[in-house]
Design brief:
3-stranded antiparallel β-sheet, 9 strands, about 30% helix, alpha+beta, about 230 residues, 4-stranded antiparallel β-sheet, 6 helices
Length: about 230
């Protein structure tokens, strides 16, 4: 439930103690609530900021969520619904952090099926090795198959990075490029762009891995366009 806070977040929370108490009290008495349903604290000065704009409510809720004090418990449309975490998280035993780290690492290893250890791929004892359907799809940059870039390179020889924060002139591929998964292989990458006004998907570029014969991407592109149009 608790993620470590960097010093800036901890300091900000200390400086806004009364605001924190106010948010927790509002959720306790009236929650679950949208962030806009919790009025800004009267004693909190409003100021524009690149990250949270004029309202600091979103920042406070994110920090409290990182501390395990509040949680996202649903959605209304595209808006997140917040409430006290204690109302939703089940009771659990408290364990020491070193033991928790080991349990987390083991669960991650079991879920991923393989890990990179000292430059060597190690399979989990319970990992299943079987045929994979020859489906073609696109992966999010944050999909667990490619989330660990070093593991991805070791498994498939696929070097991947998200270049949205790279200056345009220095990008190797594009702003938001997705890996192409075919069966059990990463065969290329694609940069789809969705026009929300026209509700249409276009492709700025496709790059195939060396030795890969280009595939027909009509079906996964149609699936992606339908999904984006529905959101």
């Amino acid at each position: 439930m608790r993620r470590s806070l960097n010093r800036n977040a901890s300091d900000w929370l200390k400086e806004n103690r009364s605001f924190r108490r106010y948010v927790l009290r509002e959720l306790e008495q009236r929650g679950p609530l949208l962030s806009r349903e919790i009025e800004d604290h009267s004693g909190l000065e409003r100021e524009d900021h690149d990250w949270w704009g004029a309202r600091k409510m979103g920042l406070m809720l994110e920090i409290l969520a990182a501390r395990g004090e509040v949680a996202v418990v649903g959605r209304r449309g595209k808006q997140r619904v917040w409430d006290l975490a204690g109302r939703w998280y089940p009771e659990t035993e408290t364990i020491a952090w070193p033991r928790a780290e080991k349990l987390i690492a083991e669960k991650r290893f079991r879920a991923l099926g393989v890990k990179l250890e000292r430059g060597r791929l190690v399979p989990h004892p319970e990992a299943e090795d079987g045929p994979v359907p020859a489906r073609t799809t696109f992966l999010s940059p944050f999909d667990r198959l490619v989330h660990d870039r070093s593991r991805t390179e070791a498994l498939w020889g696929f070097i991947y990075r998200l270049e949205m924060y790279v200056p345009a002139a220095k990008r190797e591929y594009g702003y938001y490029v997705l890996p192409i998964l075919h069966g059990d292989r990463l065969v290329g990458r694609i940069e789809p762009v969705f026009d929300r006004k026209e509700r249409r998907l276009s492709v700025k570029g496709v790059w195939w891995e060396s030795g890969v014969k280009p595939l027909n991407l009509a079906e996964p592109l149609d699936e992606l366009e339908r999904w984006l149009a529905s959101t």
